[in-house]
Protein backbone atom coordinates (compact mmCIF):
# COMPACT_ATOMS: atom_id res chain seq x y z
CA UNK A 1 0.00 0.00 0.00
CA UNK A 2 0.98 3.64 -0.17
CA UNK A 3 0.90 6.56 2.20
CA UNK A 4 2.38 10.01 2.65
CA UNK A 5 5.94 9.19 3.65
CA UNK A 6 6.49 12.59 5.30
CA UNK A 7 4.45 14.26 8.02
CA UNK A 8 5.66 17.64 6.75
CA UNK A 9 5.35 18.70 3.13
CA UNK A 10 8.69 18.33 1.31
CA UNK A 11 10.37 21.21 -0.49
CA UNK A 12 9.22 23.98 1.84
CA UNK A 13 12.47 24.49 3.78
CA UNK A 14 15.29 26.67 2.46
CA UNK A 15 17.87 23.87 2.53
CA UNK A 16 15.66 21.57 0.46
CA UNK A 17 15.04 24.28 -2.13
CA UNK A 18 18.75 25.05 -2.47
CA UNK A 19 19.59 21.36 -2.80
CA UNK A 20 16.98 20.81 -5.54
CA UNK A 21 18.05 23.93 -7.45
CA UNK A 22 21.71 22.87 -7.41
CA UNK A 23 20.70 19.44 -8.71
CA UNK A 24 18.60 21.05 -11.46
CA UNK A 25 21.62 23.09 -12.61
CA UNK A 26 23.53 19.82 -13.04
CA UNK A 27 20.58 18.20 -14.91
CA UNK A 28 20.16 15.60 -12.18
CA UNK A 29 16.99 14.31 -10.52
CA UNK A 30 16.51 12.28 -7.36
CA UNK A 31 14.67 9.39 -9.03
CA UNK A 32 17.29 9.00 -11.78
CA UNK A 33 15.12 10.38 -14.59
CA UNK A 34 16.27 12.79 -17.25
CA UNK A 35 14.87 16.30 -17.48
CA UNK A 36 12.47 15.36 -20.30
CA UNK A 37 11.50 11.90 -19.00
CA UNK A 38 8.04 11.07 -17.61
CA UNK A 39 7.09 8.63 -14.93
CA UNK A 40 5.19 5.49 -15.91
CA UNK A 41 1.39 5.86 -15.87
CA UNK A 42 -0.70 2.99 -14.54
CA UNK A 43 -4.45 2.64 -15.20
CA UNK A 44 -6.82 0.25 -13.42
CA UNK A 45 -10.53 -0.04 -14.20
CA UNK A 46 -13.08 -1.02 -11.57
CA UNK A 47 -16.00 -3.40 -11.77
CA UNK A 48 -18.52 -0.62 -12.47
CA UNK A 49 -18.48 1.59 -15.52
CA UNK A 50 -16.66 4.87 -14.96
CA UNK A 51 -14.43 3.82 -12.05
CA UNK A 52 -10.72 4.38 -12.78
CA UNK A 53 -7.60 4.52 -10.60
CA UNK A 54 -4.48 6.32 -11.93
CA UNK A 55 -0.98 6.04 -10.50
CA UNK A 56 2.03 8.22 -11.29
CA UNK A 57 4.46 6.38 -9.00
CA UNK A 58 3.35 7.71 -5.56
CA UNK A 59 0.65 10.06 -6.92
CA UNK A 60 -2.66 8.19 -6.66
CA UNK A 61 -6.02 9.44 -7.94
CA UNK A 62 -9.39 7.66 -8.03
CA UNK A 63 -12.18 8.94 -10.32
CA UNK A 64 -15.80 7.79 -10.43
CA UNK A 65 -18.53 8.92 -12.84
CA UNK A 66 -22.25 8.78 -12.14
CA UNK A 67 -25.34 10.12 -13.93
CA UNK A 68 -28.84 11.24 -13.05
CA UNK A 69 -31.78 12.90 -14.80
CA UNK A 70 -32.40 16.56 -14.03
CA UNK A 71 -33.73 19.79 -15.44
CA UNK A 72 -31.58 21.94 -17.78
CA UNK A 73 -30.65 25.56 -17.23
CA UNK A 74 -32.72 28.34 -18.80
CA UNK A 75 -29.71 29.63 -20.76
CA UNK A 76 -29.06 26.21 -22.40
CA UNK A 77 -32.33 24.26 -22.39
CA UNK A 78 -31.14 21.58 -24.83
CA UNK A 79 -27.79 20.70 -23.18
CA UNK A 80 -26.89 18.38 -20.36
CA UNK A 81 -24.71 19.17 -17.36
CA UNK A 82 -21.18 18.20 -16.34
CA UNK A 83 -20.20 18.57 -12.68
CA UNK A 84 -16.70 18.05 -11.27
CA UNK A 85 -16.22 17.40 -7.56
CA UNK A 86 -12.66 17.25 -6.23
CA UNK A 87 -11.63 15.87 -2.83
CA UNK A 88 -8.03 16.06 -1.60
CA UNK A 89 -8.56 14.36 1.74
CA UNK A 90 -5.58 12.10 1.04
CA UNK A 91 -3.26 15.13 1.06
CA UNK A 92 -2.78 16.18 4.67
CA UNK A 93 0.47 17.45 6.17
CA UNK A 94 0.98 18.68 9.71
CA UNK A 95 2.48 21.99 8.58
CA UNK A 96 -0.40 22.79 6.21
CA UNK A 97 -2.83 25.42 7.46
CA UNK A 98 -6.47 25.54 6.43
CA UNK A 99 -5.98 28.45 4.05
CA UNK A 100 -3.27 26.56 2.11
CA UNK A 101 -5.47 23.48 1.98
CA UNK A 102 -8.43 25.44 0.62
CA UNK A 103 -6.23 27.28 -1.88
CA UNK A 104 -4.86 24.02 -3.26
CA UNK A 105 -8.38 22.58 -3.52
CA UNK A 106 -9.75 25.64 -5.34
CA UNK A 107 -6.78 25.77 -7.74
CA UNK A 108 -7.19 22.11 -8.67
CA UNK A 109 -10.95 22.40 -9.09
CA UNK A 110 -10.72 25.54 -11.24
CA UNK A 111 -8.05 23.98 -13.45
CA UNK A 112 -10.21 20.91 -14.10
CA UNK A 113 -13.22 23.13 -14.80
CA UNK A 114 -11.23 25.02 -17.44
CA UNK A 115 -9.92 21.84 -19.07
CA UNK A 116 -13.17 19.88 -19.27
CA UNK A 117 -16.09 22.31 -18.96
CA UNK A 118 -14.83 25.53 -20.53
CA UNK A 119 -13.16 23.70 -23.42
CA UNK A 120 -16.44 21.77 -24.00
CA UNK A 121 -14.82 18.39 -24.53
CA UNK A 122 -18.15 16.58 -24.00
CA UNK A 123 -21.03 16.80 -26.47
CA UNK A 124 -23.59 18.14 -24.01
CA UNK A 125 -26.36 18.28 -26.61
CA UNK A 126 -26.32 14.49 -26.86
CA UNK A 127 -27.28 14.36 -23.16
CA UNK A 128 -30.63 16.05 -23.80
CA UNK A 129 -33.70 13.79 -23.45
CA UNK A 130 -36.45 16.41 -23.79
CA UNK A 131 -35.66 20.08 -24.36
CA UNK A 132 -36.42 22.30 -21.35
CA UNK A 133 -37.58 19.26 -19.37
CA UNK A 134 -35.14 16.37 -18.92
CA UNK A 135 -31.37 16.14 -19.46
CA UNK A 136 -28.61 13.90 -18.17
CA UNK A 137 -26.43 15.33 -15.39
CA UNK A 138 -22.94 13.77 -15.43
CA UNK A 139 -21.04 13.96 -12.14
CA UNK A 140 -17.33 13.16 -11.77
CA UNK A 141 -15.96 12.58 -8.26
CA UNK A 142 -12.15 12.89 -8.16
CA UNK A 143 -10.50 11.65 -4.96
CA UNK A 144 -6.80 12.42 -4.46
CA UNK A 145 -5.43 9.53 -2.40
CA UNK A 146 -1.78 10.57 -2.35
CA UNK A 147 0.15 13.54 -3.74
CA UNK A 148 3.74 13.30 -4.93
CA UNK A 149 3.79 15.84 -7.74
CA UNK A 150 2.03 16.35 -11.11
CA UNK A 151 -1.39 16.30 -9.47
CA UNK A 152 -2.97 18.17 -12.39
CA UNK A 153 -1.72 15.54 -14.83
CA UNK A 154 -2.99 12.61 -12.77
CA UNK A 155 -6.41 14.21 -12.24
CA UNK A 156 -6.90 15.02 -15.92
CA UNK A 157 -5.89 11.50 -16.97
CA UNK A 158 -8.21 9.96 -14.37
CA UNK A 159 -11.13 12.23 -15.33
CA UNK A 160 -10.74 11.63 -19.06
CA UNK A 161 -10.35 7.87 -18.66
CA UNK A 162 -13.37 7.68 -16.35
CA UNK A 163 -15.56 9.68 -18.75
CA UNK A 164 -14.47 7.54 -21.71
CA UNK A 165 -15.05 4.35 -19.72
CA UNK A 166 -18.50 5.36 -18.44
CA UNK A 167 -21.77 4.06 -19.91
CA UNK A 168 -25.19 5.59 -19.28
CA UNK A 169 -28.53 3.77 -19.57
CA UNK A 170 -30.83 4.29 -22.53
CA UNK A 171 -33.97 6.35 -22.02
CA UNK A 172 -37.11 7.20 -24.01
CA UNK A 173 -39.59 10.03 -23.59
CA UNK A 174 -43.03 9.67 -25.20
CA UNK A 175 -46.47 11.00 -24.25
CA UNK A 176 -45.01 12.80 -21.22
CA UNK A 177 -43.73 9.48 -19.90
CA UNK A 178 -40.06 8.90 -19.11
CA UNK A 179 -38.73 5.34 -19.20
CA UNK A 180 -35.19 4.29 -18.24
CA UNK A 181 -34.07 0.89 -19.54
CA UNK A 182 -31.85 -1.46 -17.57
CA UNK A 183 -28.64 -3.03 -18.88
CA UNK A 184 -30.47 -6.31 -19.59
CA UNK A 185 -33.17 -4.60 -21.64
CA UNK A 186 -30.90 -2.37 -23.75
CA UNK A 187 -27.19 -1.87 -24.09
CA UNK A 188 -25.59 1.01 -22.21
CA UNK A 189 -24.58 4.07 -24.23
CA UNK A 190 -21.10 5.67 -24.02
CA UNK A 191 -20.60 9.43 -23.84
CA UNK A 192 -19.81 11.44 -26.97
CA UNK A 193 -16.66 13.59 -27.08
CA UNK A 194 -15.63 16.54 -29.22
CA UNK A 195 -11.96 16.34 -28.19
CA UNK A 196 -9.81 14.67 -25.53
CA UNK A 197 -7.76 17.05 -23.33
CA UNK A 198 -4.75 16.03 -21.20
CA UNK A 199 -2.41 18.28 -19.20
CA UNK A 200 1.39 18.24 -18.73
CA UNK A 201 3.31 20.00 -15.94
CA UNK A 202 6.78 21.59 -16.19
CA UNK A 203 9.00 23.15 -13.51
CA UNK A 204 11.47 25.96 -14.25
CA UNK A 205 14.43 27.03 -12.11
CA UNK A 206 16.30 30.33 -12.43
CA UNK A 207 19.75 28.75 -12.49
CA UNK A 208 18.84 25.97 -14.93
CA UNK A 209 18.18 26.26 -18.66
CA UNK A 210 16.32 22.93 -18.83
CA UNK A 211 12.74 22.63 -17.47
CA UNK A 212 11.79 19.47 -15.58
CA UNK A 213 8.77 17.56 -16.88
CA UNK A 214 6.45 15.54 -14.63
CA UNK A 215 7.98 16.90 -11.38
CA UNK A 216 7.66 15.33 -7.96
CA UNK A 217 6.22 17.24 -5.00
CA UNK A 218 9.72 18.13 -3.80
CA UNK A 219 10.64 19.53 -7.22
CA UNK A 220 7.35 21.45 -7.52
CA UNK A 221 7.70 23.20 -4.15
CA UNK A 222 11.34 24.09 -4.84
CA UNK A 223 10.65 25.41 -8.37
CA UNK A 224 10.63 29.10 -9.23
CA UNK A 225 7.89 28.71 -11.86
CA UNK A 226 5.37 26.02 -12.80
CA UNK A 227 3.85 25.70 -16.28
CA UNK A 228 0.73 23.59 -16.88
CA UNK A 229 -0.14 22.99 -20.54
CA UNK A 230 -3.28 21.20 -21.73
CA UNK A 231 -3.53 19.79 -25.24
CA UNK A 232 -6.01 17.51 -26.95
CA UNK A 233 -5.38 14.63 -29.33
CA UNK A 234 -5.43 17.08 -32.28
CA UNK A 235 -2.48 18.94 -30.71
CA UNK A 236 -4.63 22.01 -30.06
CA UNK A 237 -3.90 24.13 -27.00
CA UNK A 238 -6.77 24.02 -24.49
CA UNK A 239 -5.34 25.80 -21.43
CA UNK A 240 -2.06 27.44 -20.41
CA UNK A 241 -1.24 28.26 -16.80
CA UNK A 242 2.09 29.93 -15.96
CA UNK A 243 2.93 31.03 -12.43
CA UNK A 244 6.05 31.88 -10.48
CA UNK A 245 8.97 34.29 -10.40
CA UNK A 246 11.34 32.73 -12.94
CA UNK A 247 11.55 34.60 -16.28
CA UNK A 248 10.10 32.46 -19.08
CA UNK A 249 10.59 33.50 -22.69
CA UNK A 250 8.56 32.43 -25.70
CA UNK A 251 11.07 29.87 -26.94
CA UNK A 252 11.07 28.01 -23.63
CA UNK A 253 7.29 27.83 -23.55
CA UNK A 254 7.20 26.76 -27.21
CA UNK A 255 9.67 23.93 -26.63
CA UNK A 256 7.58 22.73 -23.67
CA UNK A 257 4.43 23.03 -25.79
CA UNK A 258 5.83 20.88 -28.61
CA UNK A 259 6.82 18.09 -26.24
CA UNK A 260 3.55 18.38 -24.30
CA UNK A 261 1.45 18.12 -27.48
CA UNK A 262 3.24 14.92 -28.47
CA UNK A 263 2.83 13.54 -24.96
CA UNK A 264 -0.91 14.31 -24.81
CA UNK A 265 -1.54 12.67 -28.16
CA UNK A 266 0.27 9.52 -27.01
CA UNK A 267 -1.62 9.54 -23.68
CA UNK A 268 -5.01 9.63 -25.43
CA UNK A 269 -3.92 6.72 -27.61
CA UNK A 270 -2.83 4.84 -24.48
CA UNK A 271 -6.26 5.39 -22.86
CA UNK A 272 -7.99 4.08 -25.98
CA UNK A 273 -5.86 0.94 -25.97
CA UNK A 274 -6.61 0.30 -22.30
CA UNK A 275 -10.34 0.77 -22.89
CA UNK A 276 -10.28 -1.76 -25.72
CA UNK A 277 -8.35 -4.23 -23.56
CA UNK A 278 -10.75 -3.74 -20.63
CA UNK A 279 -13.80 -4.25 -22.86
CA UNK A 280 -12.32 -7.48 -24.21
CA UNK A 281 -11.58 -8.64 -20.68
CA UNK A 282 -15.16 -7.96 -19.60
CA UNK A 283 -16.50 -10.10 -22.44
CA UNK A 284 -14.22 -13.01 -21.60
CA UNK A 285 -14.16 -12.96 -17.79
CA UNK A 286 -16.85 -14.83 -15.89
CA UNK A 287 -15.36 -14.84 -12.39
CA UNK A 288 -15.75 -12.32 -9.56
CA UNK A 289 -15.05 -8.71 -10.50
CA UNK A 290 -12.29 -6.79 -8.68
CA UNK A 291 -13.31 -4.41 -5.91
CA UNK A 292 -11.84 -1.23 -4.48
CA UNK A 293 -8.95 -3.08 -2.79
CA UNK A 294 -7.81 -4.48 -6.14
CA UNK A 295 -7.78 -0.98 -7.64
CA UNK A 296 -5.39 0.37 -5.02
CA UNK A 297 -3.21 -2.68 -4.47
CA UNK A 298 -1.39 -5.13 -6.70
CA UNK A 299 -3.64 -6.10 -9.59
CA UNK A 300 -2.98 -8.24 -12.65
CA UNK A 301 -5.42 -6.12 -14.65
CA UNK A 302 -3.28 -3.00 -14.35
CA UNK A 303 -2.26 -1.33 -17.62
CA UNK A 304 1.09 0.49 -17.83
CA UNK A 305 2.05 3.14 -20.36
CA UNK A 306 5.56 2.01 -21.23
CA UNK A 307 4.77 -1.64 -22.15
CA UNK A 308 1.74 -0.67 -24.26
CA UNK A 309 3.39 2.33 -25.97
CA UNK A 310 6.81 0.94 -26.82
CA UNK A 311 7.04 2.86 -30.09
CA UNK A 312 6.31 6.18 -28.38
CA UNK A 313 9.90 6.69 -27.22
CA UNK A 314 11.15 6.35 -30.81
CA UNK A 315 8.67 8.94 -32.06
CA UNK A 316 9.65 11.46 -29.37
CA UNK A 317 11.47 14.64 -30.30
CA UNK A 318 15.26 14.63 -29.94
CA UNK A 319 16.54 15.02 -26.40
CA UNK A 320 17.74 18.54 -25.58
CA UNK A 321 19.28 17.68 -22.23
CA UNK A 322 22.72 18.99 -23.13
CA UNK A 323 21.52 22.11 -24.97
CA UNK A 324 19.63 25.13 -23.57
CA UNK A 325 15.92 25.45 -24.20
CA UNK A 326 16.31 28.81 -25.92
CA UNK A 327 17.81 27.13 -28.99
CA UNK A 328 15.34 26.00 -31.63
CA UNK A 329 15.22 22.40 -32.83
CA UNK A 330 17.91 21.82 -35.40
CA UNK A 331 20.15 19.10 -36.71
CA UNK A 332 22.58 17.79 -34.08
CA UNK A 333 26.14 19.06 -34.28
CA UNK A 334 29.07 16.99 -33.11
CA UNK A 335 31.61 18.85 -30.95
CA UNK A 336 34.58 16.54 -31.67
CA UNK A 337 34.01 15.10 -35.14
CA UNK A 338 36.06 12.13 -36.22
CA UNK A 339 37.39 12.49 -39.78
CA UNK A 340 37.12 9.38 -41.85
CA UNK A 341 36.22 8.12 -45.27
CA UNK A 342 32.49 7.69 -45.57
CA UNK A 343 30.74 6.84 -48.80
CA UNK A 344 27.83 8.91 -50.09
CA UNK A 345 25.52 5.91 -49.97
CA UNK A 346 26.10 5.60 -46.22
CA UNK A 347 25.53 9.31 -45.56
CA UNK A 348 22.15 9.51 -47.28
CA UNK A 349 20.13 7.26 -44.89
CA UNK A 350 21.64 8.99 -41.84
CA UNK A 351 20.74 12.40 -43.26
CA UNK A 352 17.19 11.24 -43.93
CA UNK A 353 16.82 10.04 -40.32
CA UNK A 354 18.04 13.40 -38.97
CA UNK A 355 15.64 15.31 -41.25
CA UNK A 356 12.76 13.11 -40.09
CA UNK A 357 13.52 13.83 -36.41
CA UNK A 358 13.65 17.56 -37.08
CA UNK A 359 10.33 17.47 -38.95
CA UNK A 360 8.69 15.61 -36.04
CA UNK A 361 10.01 18.20 -33.59
CA UNK A 362 8.53 21.15 -35.49
CA UNK A 363 5.51 19.42 -37.02
CA UNK A 364 3.00 21.27 -34.81
CA UNK A 365 1.58 24.42 -36.41
CA UNK A 366 2.22 27.24 -33.95
CA UNK A 367 1.50 30.16 -36.26
CA UNK A 368 -2.00 30.67 -34.90
CA UNK A 369 -1.11 31.37 -31.28
CA UNK A 370 2.64 32.13 -31.24
CA UNK A 371 3.75 35.74 -31.95
CA UNK A 372 6.20 35.82 -34.83
CA UNK A 373 9.59 37.48 -34.56
CA UNK A 374 9.98 40.77 -36.52
CA UNK A 375 11.75 40.39 -39.88
CA UNK A 376 13.97 42.79 -41.73
CA UNK A 377 11.05 44.03 -43.80
CA UNK A 378 9.00 44.69 -40.65
CA UNK A 379 11.76 46.40 -38.68
CA UNK A 380 10.55 48.14 -35.54
CA UNK A 381 11.38 51.90 -35.27
CA UNK A 382 14.17 52.85 -32.87
CA UNK A 383 13.95 55.59 -30.26
CA UNK A 384 16.04 58.02 -32.34
CA UNK A 385 13.82 57.59 -35.41
CA UNK A 386 10.69 58.05 -33.32
CA UNK A 387 12.07 61.27 -31.77
CA UNK A 388 13.02 62.66 -35.18
CA UNK A 389 9.56 61.97 -36.62
CA UNK A 390 7.91 63.68 -33.64
CA UNK A 391 10.14 66.77 -34.06
CA UNK A 392 9.27 66.98 -37.77
CA UNK A 393 5.55 66.83 -36.99
CA UNK A 394 5.92 69.60 -34.39
CA UNK A 395 7.70 71.89 -36.91
CA UNK A 396 4.99 71.25 -39.50
CA UNK A 397 2.27 72.17 -37.00
CA UNK A 398 4.11 75.41 -36.09
CA UNK A 399 4.39 76.42 -39.78
CA UNK A 400 0.68 75.78 -40.33
CA UNK A 401 -0.23 78.00 -37.35
CA UNK A 402 2.08 80.79 -38.62
CA UNK A 403 0.54 80.71 -42.10
CA UNK A 404 -2.97 80.95 -40.65
CA UNK A 405 -2.03 84.07 -38.68
Task: Extract low-pLDDT stretches.
Answer: 1-5, 316-347, 361-383
Instruction: Give the total of beta strands.
Output: 15
Strand content: 15-25%
Radius of gyration: 27 Å
Major pleated sheet: 7 strands, mixed
Q: How many DSSP helices?
A: 10
Average predicted confidence as pLDDT: 78
Based on secondary structure, the structural category is alpha+beta
Helix content: 25-40%
Order of helices and strands: HEEEEHEEHEEEEEEHEEHHEHHHH
End-to-end Cα distance, whole Å, is 93 Å
Shape: globular
Account of the 3D structure:
This protein has 405 residues and is α+β, with helices and mostly antiparallel strands. It has helices spanning 14-25, 98-118, 151-165, 217-222, 250-284, 292-296, 305-308, 312-315, 344-361, 383-404, and strands spanning 41-45, 51-56, 59-70, 81-87, 128-130, 134-146, 167-168, 171-174, 177-180, 189-190, 198-204, 212-213, 225-231, 237-244, 303-304. Strands 1, 2, 3, 4, 5, 6 and 15 form a seven-stranded mixed β-sheet that branches. It has a four-stranded antiparallel β-sheet with strand order 12-11-13-14. The chain has a two-stranded antiparallel ribbon with strand order 7-10. Strand 1 (41-45) and strand 2 form a beta hairpin. The termini are far apart. Residues 1-5, 316-347 and 361-383 have low confidence and may be disordered.
Amino acid sequence: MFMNCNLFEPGKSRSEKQFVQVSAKQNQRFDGRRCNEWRDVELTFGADWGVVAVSLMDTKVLAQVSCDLGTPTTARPNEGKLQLNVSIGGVAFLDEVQSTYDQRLLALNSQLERIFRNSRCLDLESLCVAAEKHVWCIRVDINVLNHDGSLYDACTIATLAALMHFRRPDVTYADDELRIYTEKERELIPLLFLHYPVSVTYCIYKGSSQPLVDPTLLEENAADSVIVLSFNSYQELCTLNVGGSAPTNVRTIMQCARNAATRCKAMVEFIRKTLAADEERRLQSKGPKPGLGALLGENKQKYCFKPLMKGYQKQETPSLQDSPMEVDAAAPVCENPKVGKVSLTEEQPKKQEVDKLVQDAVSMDTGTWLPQDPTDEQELPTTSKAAASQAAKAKKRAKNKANKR
